[in-house]
Specification:
By secondary structure, the chain is an alpha+beta fold. It contains 6 helices and 5 strands. A 3-stranded mixed β-sheet has the order 4-3-5, with no helix packed on it. Bound molecules: zinc ion (3 copies).
Length: 156
């Protein structure tokens, strides 16, 4: 991500958090910057390590988790449950309402794409789950894929 784009996204994130109890503190902002700069999902420990390297300050993983919780509540970051790693939301600079995300994870290069799940798909999932006697509590989908680039490379 280019520097000017990063600045714009951070500015949007600050505006987004401009409501009571939701301040994007310098540390929370730094965590978000690390996620935005990273091309692939990061674990809390990787974030703590990078924080130390880039901002010359050590933050314990427990505080990293708390800052991530804040970023996730604000939909600025998401957790990939299947990987136990975190990524920045791809829609921070968008003006539309955040929708239930589904993540396309390339198993070859770890690139992750966040796209919205259509309401019809969520409805269909709900029906399936309810029929089986369960109640869906998390709609987020994580699909393991090959991205276009990697599928071309592996076909060659
Ligand atoms: Zn998102
Ligand atoms: Zn968007
Ligand atoms: Zn790939």
């Amino acid at each position: 991500m280019g520097v000017s784009t990063l600045d714009q996204v951070i500015k949007k994130a600050e505006e987004h958090c401009n409501h009571p109890g939701a301040k994007l503190t310098p540390k929370r902002k730094n965590i978000l910057i690390l996620l935005l700069r990273s091309g692939s999902p990061l674990s809390a420990y990787e974030l703590a390590e990078r924080y130390q390297q880039q901002f010359h300050e050590s933050v314990p993983p427990m505080s990293v988790y708390r800052m991530l919780d804040f970023l996730m509540t604000e939909n600025l970051a998401h957790k990939l449950v299947s990987e136990n790693k975190f990524i920045a939301c791809s829609h921070i600079a968008c003006s539309h309402q955040h929708q239930v995300p589904q993540f396309l994870i390339c198993d070859h290069c770890n690139k992750v794409k966040e796209i919205a799940i259509g309401k019809d798909i969520i409805d269909a999932l709900n029906i399936n789950v309810t029929k089986a006697g369960y109640h869906l509590i998390n709609h987020q989908l994580e699909l393991h894929c090959l991205c276009d680039e990697c599928s071309q490379t592996s076909a060659a």
